Amino acid sequence: MDSRHFLGASALALAVGFSLGVTDAGAAAKASPVAAAPDPRDARIEALQSQLEALAAKVEMMERRTAFAPPTPAAALTPPPAPIQSLPPVASVPPSSAVASIVVGKPSIQSTDGRFAATFHGGMQFDAADYRQDPPGPITSDFRRGATPADTARARDLASGTNFRRARIGVDGKAFGDFEYNVLLEYGGAGMEDAGHIQELWFQYSGLKPFHFRVGAFAPSIGLEDQGSVFGAPFLERPAAADIARGVAGGDFREAAMAWAAGERWYAAGSITGRTVGVVNSQATGAAQPYDSALAYVGRAAFLPLKDKDRLVHLGLHGSYVARTADTGGPDTAAGAVRYGVTLQERPELRVDGTRLISTGAIDADHVSTGGVEAAGQYRTLLIQAEYERIAIERRNPAAGVSDPHFDGWYVEGSWMLTGEKRRYNPNTFAFDAPSITRPFSPLTGAWGAFELAGRYSTVDLNYQPGALGTAPGAGAVRGGEQTVVSGGVNWYLNAIVRFMLDYQDVKIDRLSPSATAYATPVGAQIGQRYQVISLRSQMAF
Asked: Which pLDDT band, with edges at 50, 70 and 90, does 395 fall under?
């Protein structure tokens, strides 16, 4: 309908309305011979008459323009518009474009098309421990020491107490279908809680299945224990050998770029890594940033030769290579001092007291390499896994006759679910996570959750040509110490969110004094010790 027809129709409607108004007014006048007050409809009639006259003038103007307009060729005529479809009723339009839900305790928001999602998560691990040690003796005869000569005024007495090992909050999800992300902040710590810092912050593109590409701050894939969830592990801490090896070029809040892919029976990942994210701890001291950051490469491959309903066998290899060590000393480093220092050290698989008892000290290094093998077997409710790690350091400008050191360690651990569940195998990490809880704790229904027994033997040796007791170390000696931990534990999963863990550890440290002067001991004295510790963890994670 063109404008003329529209205006004509409007004029006709107004005319009809006007005539009806006049008719109503006349009828009202005839029905009431007595003079009445002014009818308010008179104003309406006058307004309609004015609009009718204006529309008539516009119609007349349009007709005059059309009379003088050149004819339009038939080919150029616009086809009649398609009939206007009626709009659907309002009730058929969805009231929201997103869906909110809570799955296994995790609040989540997801768009109706599934291309956008955000899941909020958090976790708390509150630890308490009681260390059973021999009472400290005189400093002249009790030579127990920590990893560094910082507490030579007394024997190293580990402090019983409590600690928030982990206190995390974050959000992960996806955007535009193929992009994934994770933002995770950490407030827990070792020995004492830390100031908040980045634990993970990355995004990943997953649009080229089975490949995935990730960049940001995260723990690159380098082993079974490395990739297992810390909220689902059978023990409070990772075994020392795995923790030391992962920290050489990977580990927590490592800045990296990683490509990985996985199939039903195989997994492969490769990463390029740099420094760790700078952290200011609870003592308001920050991690000193290097003059030149490290550059390293990390890789892992694993496959499943056997996988069925009740059985699973996992085999894998992993390793890392530090092509450029971090310049921690800078250009003003004094001659003979360590400029590119690499230190391997570890705590005794518990963090209520954050003291390290074994350490190589800083070794001036050109390159560092690690290599490891991993294996696991699962039969119904029983799981056994093990890893072996070897670490080699290439010294920078060593003195004549001084060789490059190497170190190693391994562990074997097992867990048995007493209530019939089994640990889940994560196809995205090729590592084991916590079991699914089939009967969450509820005394009203007689359900008590799930129970698990766990055991571990762990050892790591940071000695290299240490020499004999009572002797001074040689020129190339590294007296980092040997640590052996035998652990047993009981885990109670009340549901998918809450868990209690009770562990017992027998710890043995065998270490010769690296320096009689720095450690305030006789030459080559034994500065290790043996002790037991009972620890309890209360955990909430969603």
From this structure: very high
